[in-house]
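Hello again, I could really use a second opinion on something today. For a while now I've been wondering how a particular protein folds. Please have a think about how the structure follows from the sequence. Here's the protein in full, and shout if anything looks odd to you:

***
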Amino acid sequence: MDVLSVVLRYDDLLADDSGLFLLDGRSSVKLLRGEAGTQHARMVGDQMLELPDSWASSQHALLEPTPEGGYQIVDQGSRNGTLVSGQRIQTAPLRDRDLVEIGHTLLCYRRIEERLARPLLAAPEGVRLGPTFTRCPELAELVRQLEAIASTREPVLVMGETGSGKEIVARALHELSRRTGAFRAIDCGAIPEGLLESVLFGHRRGAFTGAQEPRTGELVLADGGTLLLDEIANMGEASQAKFLRCLETGLVTPLGTAEGLSTDVRVLAATNRDILADGRGFRPDLLSRLTGFVARLPPLRERREDLGVLTRFFLRECGVAKASIRTAAARRLFCSGFPGNVRQLRAVLRSASVLAGEGPIELSHLPPPEAFKAVPDAEATVAADGAAPRPKPGPPEIVAALERAGGNVVQAARDLSVHPRQLYRWMERAEIDPERYRAGKG
């Protein structure tokens, strides 16, 4: 299913005029400036999307369905040009998660399964996630799954890159659970291994050198609530063994005593490392205890339709009443690889809004381009000139490439501008069999 979402407008970053529009896959769609007085983006019939943007042309661009599925975009001689993921184009095929600039409006093109699209089409404002919302179909589906398991004691492992919002997801799960106890969080990577057991389980006075006062462990402080163990992949072997015993018995034994305390704690774990694929240094039996449900949190570069929602939230969080951004600055910021994910977007917007004052955010208010370059990552593809990262293709695009290539993986990889080994990994993850698309096998 093809969907086009309005992400934000450069002239008014606080305007909540985002829209989500279904493309039928058969009709060409004109993208153009709406009539004077148009306040919100709107689809006229199935063949015209009007934008409240004076910088768009009256005949700006055309979305055309392609024979293999999906769309290409064609500039119609517009005054300010049409850009895809920060690159000016005349005609270009659209890939899943591509950003399209029409005038001063940023849109996001998605190719997604119908089951993921329908809930968002019914709730265009998005699905609540903690203090904000998401319009990302994959993340909205994850929220739905978390709502289903929230009332259970099922352990949850949240996996995601640094800065992608793992603690926000954990807090949201705690709130959904309606548990009456506290939400507690500790960073296993920030606590020396020699102190981690004391932090987790607590200790009695005199339990070790320097233990002049007793300490209540986090597992006890979170009784009746939820404990998040962030960056759990950094937990040492000794702490892993004792924590596993605690999970098995339900008893917390402070250092310096043999008496266990019974607690009712929902344990959540988070990591920026894929310990399911690379579990070196981590006990398999503990891992199996923590993975009742695995929540894979997409990085910001894979949820670009949320850029408008997040930008508005962070600017309002700073008390900003009016905000705009110059075109060059918008392209550097919003078309970047976001190596620091949501955390980086928040930090940049907070700083830029202060520097901009009452005026628009300028290029000089942003960090240098190097700060926005995506870290080397097998999940992302990069434009030929290296300037703007292209999001990884989704299953529909992979299937379309295989169909065009007659099932030839090397040729399909070349079409998608990725290495064949990476394409094989994506196909395995999406359970796509290239043999189905070989000539004569339909």
The first strand starts at residue 2 and ends at 9.
